[in-house]
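Subject: Protein record for review, amino acid sequence with backbone structure tokens
Concerning: The relation between a protein's sequence and the shape of its backbone.
How to read it: Take the token row as a discrete description of the fold.
Enclosed: The protein record, placed directly beneath this head.
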Amino acid sequence: MSAVVTRSGGVVAAVLPDDVPADNFATMAATLLGALEVIYSGTKAPAPQAVTVHTEAGNLLVRVVTPKTFLVTLTDGSADDVAEQVEETAIRARALLGKIP
């Protein structure tokens, strides 16, 4: 499952199961990225452009798409198996969103 989300938690596009509310998914994803940015800014380090969280159930991959949007993906299996696909998807989304006035 994946979504392109704004930093304020809005849904740009999403492919989620029917029982996963897109608005809640987007809001929590934006909250996660915002919290990480606060942690990094507190150490005077640049904000993360990519985040991967490993769990027993799968992985969460976050990739910045534009300064105002990011891609968040939940996967089963190894994050290494899908990391390249997530990167390619973020690049394609960047190309598409960059054309919007």
